[in-house]
Write a structure and sequence with these properties.
This protein is mostly beta strands. The protein contains nine helices and 52 strands. β42 and β43 form a beta hairpin. The relative contact order is 0.08.
């Protein structure tokens, strides 16, 4: 069939009315059939709809997802702003511009499509409640479209008007309210009484100077992110608390407060708590929800697994909340510390916290929880670092944009509930030195809920092409510490983000004197126990020109050779000492008075429960450099500081590591396997100290007679000498050999455990002060551990002296 070319030309000029009035189609030699006529009418209608829609399209420069159910697209000029609002409803959609995070004083726009006709009302709200239709309608409706699931309206309004009820849209972030109604506003009313089904607010910079789309994390993307279980506007931090039925936590913090939003798949109450374990016992709990359109929150606590008790002092502020047909979201603010021993609140500081959650199917009534509001199986817990100042506030982008991605490429994650993947990566050639300036996570879209943490280890050995091409199960097929990759350069965990090193600084890799390779450890959390492909990892930014300042990596530790923990121990502490004379010697050698520490990575293994790096100057304790009172091996992340910590000549550091071995029957020695233990802190600092390891090692073998007496162990001197010879050949397994050959027969009781703790903390230790394997001090100089006293946990509201 050939179509008349005159008709085609008319349609290409989009004169569809002329097309319809023109003699339709002609065969070369015959008339068109009735069946073909219907086919071409359908084609004509499709073309008409396409061109009609294309005429109304606009290239929207700015986009922001206000919630999972409503998005805002806009352009502006010097006088006016044009906005397209898309809402998941067949009723009305609305946005507003408010002086605060409530309706009071808000300038509102409410519109929709009714019986195929678009409408809009310019409104205002003098208080929280139904808005009033403005006498002066300063909003123009440009377009309106409705389909089976969404309503879209396009409107235009002046940036500033003479109407006292119209709020001026100014430069900078303003509070934008949003709401969705289930049904349309059927006629113009003085007061719009149609109640919303969903509502909320966020801060939006409408008058922007750059053509970018902004997301909640502070990143820049070309498309808005509308996924309910991944990102949400207004907060730089996010964690998916439950992998299967998305419970989301979004938060931000300042020096004194932390602001949190919880979104859960319920129309009832939602609970969030902070605990020393993942149980309710001893937890600080907040129960919240939206009842009759108003958000509520109760500050509670629990001393057992059961119904929480409402605190006498309510230290939680409700910021706002919303509820729709499937989910409830509540935003709250609380102090990071109450500074009041009578309060039941747990201080929210740096370090790892056990965050527990639960939700019920109905709301609380009479401000009192009871067994009728049981959560059933809708509960859980996970580890999070809530206070880690480096987030979206600090860019990881570099001036020349050079970077390398390390991590798997389309790796098939096995159907296991948890899996550790290790892979090598090459950063630089032997004749090329690069300078790392930033590290940021790169998560495969859709796998955000499964990637639990990523760690980058520096490998100070050569790696063969065969090893470089392989994928290995960490701690089973390969252990980073066994293969010369024992230093941690960077990491990321759930709720964390990337960072950049200080300006004009870099960490050298490659060349003839720096590591060329890294090992990447990926921890996958896979509660659905299914196979999936993943290409997540870390993006390492770098520069090629030598920076003004190099970044150094200092290892503070108690030597794993002499570290040991008795079995059945609820709490056992091992200390590593970085002494004044070591730091002073290193700084004098580099003609430095001080260095700046901007990040610390704490590392122990499966028995580790708490770690802290205490800081002393001239005999006075300063604020701890870092403290993690709820350390979790499965949740490891670098603690970055917004302001560097000063480490001066003459300072001393004490690394305290706490362990629990209640489920173990034998001594846990220091060692490389995760069933053994470590006590290490890696300090990222600048300018770099000529010092790679500062710590201490115990004199266990040298004082074995004292140890044996305290543990009621009889021994053969010849057997002890034989152990000494074995240790001299394999020093790093000192405690493994001693525990297996000499202490395996100990019958442990509380008295022996107390003696073991006293022996570890009150017998002499050797100083370890090394720079690339060379000792800066006498390797066998010993000292009596200082009596530092008990650690006093500090917080921003009740601080100790800053360093």
């Amino acid at each position: 069939m050939h179509v008349n070319s005159t008709y085609i030309n008319l349609c290409q000029n989009q004169d569809l009315r002329n097309c319809r009035s023109t003699s339709l189609f002609h065969y070369h030699g015959g008339r068109i059939s009735q069946k073909d006529m219907y086919v071409w009418i359908v084609v004509l209608v499709t073309i008409s709809v396409f061109f009609s829609a294309s005429e109304g399209n606009e290239d929207w420069k700015y986009t922001q997802q206000l919630s999972p159910r409503i998005s805002l697209h806009w352009n502006f000029d010097q006088d006016s702003i044009k906005m397209k609002i898309i809402g998941e409803t067949k009723g009305w959609v609305g946005i507003g511009f408010a002086p605060a995070r409530t309706m009071a004083g808000a300038d509102l726009i409410i519109g929709g499509v009714l019986n195929g006709k678009e409408y809009v009302y310019d409104c205002y709200a003098a208080k929280n409640g139904p808005p009033t239709v403005d006498a002066d309608q300063n909003v123009d409706i440009l377009d309106g479209v409705e389909n089976a699931t969404h309503t879209t309206i396009t409107v235009k309004r002046p940036l500033k008007s003479d109407n006292a009820f119209d709020n001026t849209i100014k430069a900078g972030e303003i509070i934008v309210l949003w709401a969705i109604g289930r049904i349309d506003v059927k006629r113009k009313r003085t007061v719009v009484k149609y109640r919303h089904a969903d509502r909320g607010f966020t801060e939006v910079e409408l008058l922007r100077g750059k053509e970018q789309t902004r997301q909640a994390s502070g990143s820049v993307k070309t498309q808005p992110e509308a996924s309910l279980d991944y990102k949400y506007v207004g907060f730089p931090y996010h964690a998916l608390l439950d992998k299967l039925q998305p419970v989301n936590l979004y938060w931000d913090f300042d020096e004194n407060t932390v602001t949190m939003q919880v979104i859960a798949p319920t129309k009832g109450w939602v609970g969030l708590g902070f605990s020393r374990s993942t149980s309710m016992n001893g937890a600080d709990i907040i129960m919240m929800g939206v009842r009759y359109g108003e958000a509520y929150a109760l500050d509670c606590h629990s001393d057992r697994n059961g119904v929480p008790v409402v605190d006498q002092n309510q230290n939680v502020e409700v910021i706002g909340g919303w509820e729709n047909d499937t989910h409830t979201g509540v935003t709250i603010r609380r102090s990071r510390s109450s500074c009041n021993s009578d309060d039941m609140d747990i201080d929210v500081e740096s370090g790892t916290y056990k965050v527990i959650w639960a939700y019920g199917v109905t709301d609380l009534r009479n401000n009192k929880p009871h067994f009728g509001y049981y959560h059933s199986w809708n509960r859980g817990g996970m580890s999070l670092k809530l206070i880690n100042p480096i987030s979206a506030k600090r860019s990881t982008g570099q001036k020349d944009g050079l970077h390398v991605n390390v991590g798997p490429s389309n790796f098939l994650v096995p159907a296991k509930s948890t899996f550790y993947l290790c892979q090598y990566a090459k950063l630089s050639e032997a004749n090329e030195t690069l300078y790392i300036t930033g590290i940021s996570p790169q998560l495969t879209e859709g796998n955000e809920r499964n990637v639990h943490h990523v760690i980058i280890y520096l490998c100070e050995v050569d790696v063969t092409p065969k090893l470089l091409a392989g994928s290995y199960q960490c701690y089973d097929e390969i252990n980073p510490y066994f293969v010369g990759c024992g230093k941690i350069l960077g990491g990321w965990a759930v709720g964390g983000s990337g960072t950049s090193f200080p300006e004009d600084s870099g960490f050298p890799v490659g060349g003839h004197s720096h590591p060329q390779y890294v090992m990447v450890e990926m921890h996958y959390d896979n509660p659905e126990i299914k196979e999936f492909h993943d290409s997540s990892g870390m993006q390492i930014s770098y520069i090629t020109q030598k920076p003004e300042t190099m970044v150094g990596l200092l290892d503070v530790q108690h030597s794993l050779a002499t570290l040991w923990i008795p079995p059945g121990q609820e709490h056992f502490q091992v200390d590593g000492y970085c002494r004044e004379n070591c730091l002073t010697t290193a700084m004098e050698g580099a003609e430095l008075d001080e260095v700046k520490v901007f990040g610390i990575f704490l590392h122990s293994h499966l028995a580790g429960t708490a770690m802290r790096l205490r800081h002393f100057r001239n005999g006075t304790e300063l604020k701890a450099m870092v403290a993690d009172e709820h350390y979790d091996f499965n949740y490891q992340d670098i603690q970055y500081f917004e302001e560097p910590k000063l480490l001066k000549a003459g300072d001393a550091l004490t690394l305290e590591c706490g362990y629990t071995t209640l489920d173990r029957k034998n001594i846990t020695p220091g060692g490389l396997p995760t069933s053994s233990e470590m006590c290490i802190a890696f300090l990222l600092h600048y300018p770099p100290l000529p010092l790679t390891l500062c710590g201490s090692r115990g004199k266990v073998y040298e004082n074995f007679d004292v140890l044996a007496k305290g543990l009621s162990v009889s021994f053969d001197p010849e057997e002890v000498r034989g152990v000494g010879e074995e240790i001299s050949r394999d020093y790093w397994n000192t405690m493994k050999v001693i525990s297996e050959k000499l202490l395996s027969g100990v019958v442990w009781d509380d008295q022996k455990r107390r003696f073991a703790q006293d022996f570890m903390q009150n017998t002499k230790q050797y100083t370890t002060c090394l720079n690339k394997g060379k000792s800066l001090l006498n390797y066998f100089s010993d000292f009596m551990p200082p009596n530092d006293g008990d650690y006093v946990e500090n917080n921003p509201s009740c601080p100790l002296t800053e360093g």
